[in-house]
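In the design runs reported in the main text, the only information available to the sequence generator was the tokenized backbone. The following block is the verbatim input for one such run; it is reproduced so that readers can re-run the procedure and compare outputs position by position.
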């Protein structure tokens, strides 16, 4: 069950009283129509910035998600989705930017984001071939499977598809498709080890 916030410009209407929204407080800046924020049960959300420009956009926080301080979620365009799977966590300072029509950022269940991470579907500005005048940098959606660990200072760029059970190491730029249960490091990100797995237990 979800709590649902819908917005026309900067106006929200809470349409469900079945979910406790006291742990889900937002700063929002919305211009457009038919945009929706859906919040699952058990979410703890520490004042992320939600910015929406356009129509028919949707952001979904599934059940038991934790969003730490300094996180932001931008949807700029039309028919855009950001979906975050249940039991996922964001430490702090994670920025999602889903730009351009019909793109999406989809995060699987039980994913773990550390800090100072950027996820993008677009370069924000078009680049054209001088001879053909055709655009050469189209936007592309981003997909993370279940149980993916994203380490600090990582950038996940347009078109990235991260297989379930994988780890993206610190200071990595992930920009293509990677197999399940792989360790990905570097600029650009390369698979340096396969057939790995990880747990959430802390070593200290």
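Verbatim output:
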């Amino acid at each position: 069950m979800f709590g649902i916030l819908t917005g026309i410009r900067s106006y929200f209407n809470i349409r469900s009283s079945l979910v406790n929204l006291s742990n889900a407080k937002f700063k929002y800046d919305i211009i457009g129509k038919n945009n929706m924020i859906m919040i699952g049960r058990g979410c703890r959300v520490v004042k992320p910035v939600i910015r929406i420009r356009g129509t028919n956009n949707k952001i979904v926080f599934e059940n038991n998600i934790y969003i730490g301080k300094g996180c932001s979620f931008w949807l700029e365009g039309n028919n855009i989705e950001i979906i975050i799977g249940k039991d996922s966590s964001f430490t702090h300072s994670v920025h999602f930017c889903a730009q351009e029509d019909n793109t999406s950022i989809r995060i699987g269940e039980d994913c773990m984001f550390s800090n100072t991470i950027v996820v993008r579907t677009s370069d924000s500005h078009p680049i054209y071939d001088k001879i053909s005048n055709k655009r050469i940098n189209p936007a592309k959606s981003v997909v993370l499977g279940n149980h993916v660990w994203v380490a600090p200072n990582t950038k996940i760029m347009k078109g990235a598809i991260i297989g379930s059970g994988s780890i993206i190491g610190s200071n990595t730029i992930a920009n293509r498709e990677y197999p399940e249960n792989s360790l990905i490091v570097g600029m650009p990100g390369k698979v340096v080890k396969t057939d790995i797995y990880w747990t959430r237990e802390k070593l200290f």
